[in-house]
């Protein structure tokens, strides 16, 4: 009997300690996600300087070949910035997937409850913007920039334009693959959260007005 009591006394502190460790890990991960978001906004705020610098260099050089390469290089650098942004998004989404698909189940097992951290499950059905628009926004924006630049250069298209177009199409394809990967990770954690959706459904009884007693 004493051994059983001692074992139960040991298990309870261990469960509580593990929950505290998981919560500490969760806080560290969310802090890291906040840093990634700050870096993303900083990167996007610096992006407008790239075409301004490209335009300045285009005015400085007199050679037509150099002007052409400066234009295509400017577009390529913008795509590199977009790829950096997408890579940061991949890091954030991998972090959320780890929390929802690996960390949450461990805490559910230890606590015996699933009624916590319900914001991401809530967004599965109530996300204000279709995630496809966000996932492919950078690839779509750079594709539009690329099409506009080709139209501008169309009347005097040269072999240097062909080279710049091929390089930028390669960058755009990589950006598309990264955007596709972002969507795959998002769908993966949404599947992990499917069992939590009933917790977020409103209780019909709560919407009914209580009947007042007759006086």
List the helices and strands and how they pair.
Layout: H1 2-46, H2 49-60, H3 64-111, H4 119-126, H5 131-135, H6 137-153, H7 159-192, H8 197-200, H9 204-207
How would you describe this structure to a colleague?
The protein is mostly helical and 215 residues long. It has helices at residues 2-46, 49-60, 64-111, 119-126, 131-135, 137-153, 159-192, 197-200, 204-207. Helix 2 (49-60) packs antiparallel against helix 3 (64-111) and helix 6 (137-153) runs antiparallel to helix 7. The radius of gyration is 26 Å and the shape is elongated. Mean pLDDT is 83; it is low at 1-11 and 204-215.
* Radius of gyration (Å): 26 Å
Number of strands: 0
Measured as a percent range, the helix fraction is over 70%
Shape: elongated
The main sheet comes to: none
Give the tags.
single chain, 215 residues, mainly alpha, 9 helices, elongated, disordered N terminus, disordered C terminus
Compose a concise summary of this entry.
This protein has 215 residues and is an all-alpha fold.
